[in-house]
Amino acid sequence: MRVTCLSIVTSMPENSLRANRSAQHIAMTMSVAASPFPLRRFSLEIKIGINGFGRIGRLVARVALQSDDVELVAVNDPYITTDYMTYMFKYDSVHGQWKKNELTVKDSKTLLFGDRTVSVFGMRNPEEIPWGEAGAEYVVESTGVFTDKEKAAAHIKGGAKKVVISAPSSNAPMFVVGVNEKEYKKDIDIVSNASCTTNCLAPLAKVLNDKFGIVEGLMTTVHSITATQKTVDGPSMKDWRGGRAASFNIIPSSTGAAKAVGKVLPALNGKLTGMAFRVPTVDVSVVDLTARLEKAATYDEIKAAIKQESETNLKGILGYTEDDVVSTDFIGDCRSSIFDAKAGIALNGKFVKVVSWYDNEWGYSNRVIDLIRHMASVA
């Protein structure tokens, strides 16, 4: 079967222009967005738990709760009560109110999503989270704290069978759906879903490298604000510029997203690096990849190659648009990377700049669930 990419399940206020633009765009993309790999029909739902109910944790929960083949059975977060968890889940400034089903608090340890029961824990130590008792086979580690294999392995001790880290990892195998997920083997228990930026860049780089060869490249991501930034100027000892007010500045920053492409595409190892600009927008980011090619090609040939892959092998992962779009047009887009044909440019046949958009929250959260689906399909 092919899994439809989940987008339209929430609703912004009807008088919101942003919501209207986003809804129009999502409606357009829904007809073409589907996961690129075939998945077996599961006789039972894939049961997942989420550790950390922040931006990604809550959105992964939204994706799971809309899915017929995935069941959210437990959430762990030691810092928020079930009442506040309900409020944070229901109301989202970017992605709108949750309207798929009624969300209620059954008691201090249980949430009800319609008739679905979700256990709530508040453990600081992952080893103590009773994933096994809750029935969670796959755990999404989305705290941003337990990102290496040794720390993430604590979830296995709590009864989970597999762990997906929703962040880059220093030593866990990294998989990007549409690029290298087929290399996953069933004996691998802990994996990383890489970063949202790597998920955007890798499919684009794969097409360029497969079709024309990449000699070397530099990436810049113009990235929306994230929760680690400061609302006003404050202390940030490791990154002084990162301590400046997020809503008032364009902030140069480091990123390992481009180098990480070499981990999922070994042919590009050592050929890419990059940096980031953090900008005062709340969601949607854009990758600018400037590359030197092995094989000369016109920009039209490059566009054609990307368009073909977006409609075939990478359908639902890599998108293509020739519209005059801006960032808010991609809020709620479930694809990893949407190539902007009008934004790129070529200096000559071997030196080209390509541009691709991504909803760094919603698109990435969809890929987390897609990776879990794939892992379950080979288990």
UniProtKB/TrEMBL annotation:
<dbReference type="Pfam" id="PF02800">
    <property type="entry name" value="Gp_dh_C"/>
</dbReference>
<dbReference type="InterPro" id="IPR020830">
    <property type="entry name" value="GlycerAld_3-P_DH_AS"/>
</dbReference>
<feature type="binding site">
    <location>
        <begin position="55"/>
        <end position="56"/>
    </location>
    <ligand>
        <name>NAD(+)</name>
    </ligand>
</feature>
<dbReference type="GO" id="GO:0004365">
    <property type="term" value="F:glyceraldehyde-3-phosphate dehydrogenase (NAD+) (phosphorylating) activity"/>
</dbReference>
<keyword id="KW-0560">Oxidoreductase</keyword>
<dbReference type="InterPro" id="IPR020828">
    <property type="entry name" value="GlycerAld_3-P_DH_NAD(P)-bd"/>
</dbReference>
<dbReference type="InterPro" id="IPR006424">
    <property type="entry name" value="Glyceraldehyde-3-P_DH_1"/>
</dbReference>
<feature type="site" description="Activates thiol group during catalysis">
    <location>
        <position position="223"/>
    </location>
</feature>
<dbReference type="InterPro" id="IPR020829">
    <property type="entry name" value="GlycerAld_3-P_DH_cat"/>
</dbReference>
<feature type="binding site">
    <location>
        <position position="77"/>
    </location>
    <ligand>
        <name>NAD(+)</name>
    </ligand>
</feature>
<feature type="binding site">
    <location>
        <begin position="195"/>
        <end position="197"/>
    </location>
    <ligand>
        <name>D-glyceraldehyde 3-phosphate</name>
    </ligand>
</feature>
<dbReference type="InterPro" id="IPR036291">
    <property type="entry name" value="NAD(P)-bd_dom_sf"/>
</dbReference>
<feature type="domain" description="Glyceraldehyde 3-phosphate dehydrogenase NAD(P) binding">
    <location>
        <begin position="46"/>
        <end position="196"/>
    </location>
</feature>
<comment type="similarity">
    <text>Belongs to the glyceraldehyde-3-phosphate dehydrogenase family.</text>
</comment>
<keyword id="KW-0547">Nucleotide-binding</keyword>
<keyword id="KW-0324">Glycolysis</keyword>
<dbReference type="GO" id="GO:0006096">
    <property type="term" value="P:glycolytic process"/>
</dbReference>
<feature type="binding site">
    <location>
        <begin position="255"/>
        <end position="256"/>
    </location>
    <ligand>
        <name>D-glyceraldehyde 3-phosphate</name>
    </ligand>
</feature>
<feature type="binding site">
    <location>
        <position position="226"/>
    </location>
    <ligand>
        <name>D-glyceraldehyde 3-phosphate</name>
    </ligand>
</feature>
<dbReference type="Pfam" id="PF00044">
    <property type="entry name" value="Gp_dh_N"/>
</dbReference>
<feature type="active site" description="Nucleophile">
    <location>
        <position position="196"/>
    </location>
</feature>
<feature type="binding site">
    <location>
        <position position="278"/>
    </location>
    <ligand>
        <name>D-glyceraldehyde 3-phosphate</name>
    </ligand>
</feature>
<feature type="binding site">
    <location>
        <position position="124"/>
    </location>
    <ligand>
        <name>NAD(+)</name>
    </ligand>
</feature>
<feature type="binding site">
    <location>
        <position position="166"/>
    </location>
    <ligand>
        <name>NAD(+)</name>
    </ligand>
</feature>
<dbReference type="InterPro" id="IPR020831">
    <property type="entry name" value="GlycerAld/Erythrose_P_DH"/>
</dbReference>
<protein>
    <recommendedName>
        <fullName>Glyceraldehyde-3-phosphate dehydrogenase</fullName>
        <ecNumber>1.2.1.-</ecNumber>
    </recommendedName>
</protein>
<keyword id="KW-0520">NAD</keyword>
<feature type="binding site">
    <location>
        <position position="360"/>
    </location>
    <ligand>
        <name>NAD(+)</name>
    </ligand>
</feature>
